[in-house]
Amino acid sequence: MQKIKNKVVLFLLLLLLSINNVYAINVDTTKKGKLNIKATYSEKVLSNAKINLYHVADMNENAEFTYTKDFEGNKEIKEYKTSEWNELALSLDKHINEKKITPIITKTTDESGLTNIENLTSGLYLIKMDPITEENYQYQSSPSLISVPTYNEMTKEYIYDVQVMVKTESKFIGTTDNEEKPSVPSTDKDTTKAPNTYDNIMKYIILFTLSIIGIIVIVFYRSRKEEVQK
After folding, report:
1. Tens digit of pLDDT for each residue in 68-120?
2. Do 150 and 176 touch, CB atoms closer than 8 A?
3. 196-201, long-range: CB within 8 Å, 24+ apart, which pairs?
4. Given this model, what pLDDT does residue 67 score?
5. Per-residue pLDDT at 140 exceeds 80
6. Which of 81, 89, 187, 204 is spaced 20 to 30 Å from 223 by Cα?
7. What's the pLDDT score for residue 93?
8. Domain range holding 55?
9. Which residue intervals of 32-76 are DSSP H helices?
10. Does residue 123 surpass a pLDDT of 50?
11. CA–CA gap between residue 63 and residue 25 (Å, rounded)
């Protein structure tokens, strides 16, 4: 009976190790990614908007980031939770302006407010739209971060074809003498969600680990109890 219990414990430990290994090699760094970007303000489509893309960091097989040369010296990405990536994006945007870093590519949106960027290596990217003026309003975006690939919690897999909605805000810049001041559109809600990668993986690993430990404790407790009763 004792040998059977020991084998069960060993099996559970091996299962835990195998699960951890699966998550650790989940990112295919040889696969190229794609960003499908749309620029809007509320229901208004922003055409002819220039979208700038900066390659902030490389991603390894364990979904860990390492800054590219242009961004070395900044606070480590792992010190930020994904919910804090807006703060990180602002910090990196300041770094871009101070160091006068040029984007790796600039694309212009079509009449539907769409553009795409292909053949991207696994990593973390910063997206920023140049200000655009239409009908007495100036539209501009705050910088945002997106990982390629992005982890999908529902399917438990990495997505290499990523959809991005550029968050924007508007500013009224005046009218001509013969024009009345139009009503200011409602403020656009931030529809950009921070990508979930390493934080989510670690959450599931920790929960699974705690479950395994609980099972092991119960098995040993029952085993000791039976020995005392004998």
Report:
1. 999 999 999 999 998 999 999 999 999 999 999 999 999 999 999 999 999 99
2. no
3. 196/82, 196/150, 196/151, 196/153, 197/59, 197/63, 197/82, 197/147, 197/150, 197/151, 198/62, 198/63, 198/64, 198/78, 199/81, 199/82, 200/82, 200/151, 200/153, 201/23, 201/26, 201/63, 201/151
4. 98
5. yes
6. 204
7. 97
8. 31-196
9. none
10. yes
11. 8
Are both 206 and 191 inside the same structural domain? no
What is the CATH classification number for the domain harbouring 88? 2.60.40.10
Tell me how long the chain is.
230
DSSP 151: E
How far apart CA 181 and CA 172 sit, in angstroms, is 9
Tokens of 190: 């931030």
- Token pair of 72, please? 């070395």
β-strand partners of 33: 120
41 in the same domain as 14: no
- Which of 11-20, 142-151, 167-176 tops mean pLDDT? 142-151
Give the pair of three-digit tokens for residue 157: 């897999």
pLDDT value at 193 more than 50: no
Helix (H), strand (E) counts: the chain: 3, 14
- The residue type at 161: D
Q: pLDDT value at position 59?
A: 97
Q: How many domains does the chain have?
A: 2
